[in-house]
Amino acid sequence: MNTEVTIAIVEDDDATRASLIARLALKASYRLLFEADRLVTARAHLRHALPQVLIVDLGLPDGSGLDLIAEVAAKNTDTAILVLTVFGDEEKLIRAFERGARGYLLKDETAIGLTDAIDQLLAGGAPISPAIARYLIKHLLSEQAGSAPRESSAESAKFPPIHPDSCLTAREVEVLRLAAKGYNHAEVAGLLDLSAHTVASYTRRIYEKLEVHSRAEALFEANRLGLIDHQDA
Fold it and tell me: Which pLDDT score, from 0 to 100, does residue 183 have?
């Protein structure tokens, strides 16, 4: 017998919020407790009831989703908190987990479905987008390397840098920055006076160089490497 699962969504983009609600409606055991487009609305709802799963964006019109994560985690450690964002910098990623988030997905992520992520949360797991997982591993490895004795040149040669020094070309960065602003392939092609086929080729090379498999992962990696910033989004 299926047990009802209450879910709340805090997301300021109307189209994204509607898409999330539609995807949740596909599962009979999920019940939407409330939806909110800003912190003040979410806090008003949370004073009356806490959901079993809270899906929250970090960038909201009246503040940071990080504050809401901390508040909910302090009230009820049984609420599973899932961050869903476009792309995040390293500080926000680490702070989200420190404040109580249990999962972190990039919007437009294709490798992990929303309902699968919720099921993982409810089973005690920690759903994380592949790009986020790779960053966390690198973060831990870099910390370990910083505290370990320096390797000899022969030893370090066996373990090349995770990302090559030669990264994206100026045109590839230009394509990424337009993608970060929300333009699709056809629109990018028009803005750069290129064919859609050429833009698709640039996109494939970007994915290969950044070792990613989706637009969301590419934006996350590019932001983390300093190739684009939040002003591009």
Answer: 84
Task: State how far the Cα of 84 lies from the Cα of 63, in Å rounded to an integer.
Answer: 16
In the block, tokens 């539609």 appear at: 22
What is the number of alpha carbons within 13 Å of residue 50 lying toward its C-beta?
14
Considering only the top CATH level, what class is 162-232?
A: mainly alpha
Nearest to 111 by CA among 12, 13, 207: 207
Q: Which CATH superfamily does the domain covering 5-133 fall into?
A: Response regulator (3.40.50.2300)
Residue 76 CA, chain-centre distance (Å), reads 24
Model confidence, pTM: 0.68
Burial status of residue 108 (CB atoms within 10 A of its CB: 0-12, 13-18, 19 or more) = middle
Whether 92 contacts 63, CB under 8 Å: no
Q: What is the pLDDT of residues 9-28, one digit of tens each?
A: 999 999 889 999 999 998 99
Return the domain boundaries, the chain: 5-133, 162-232
How confident is the model over 73-102, as a mean pLDDT? Answer: 85
DSSP secondary structure, 174-221, as one string: HHHHHHHTT--HHHHHHHHT--HHHHHHHHHHHHHHHT-SSHHHHHHH
Sheet holding 30-36, edge to edge: 30-36, 5-10, 53-56, 80-85, 103-106
Confidence of residue 93 (pLDDT cuts 50, 70, 90): confident
Q: In whole angstroms, give the CA distance from residue 90 to residue 55.
A: 20
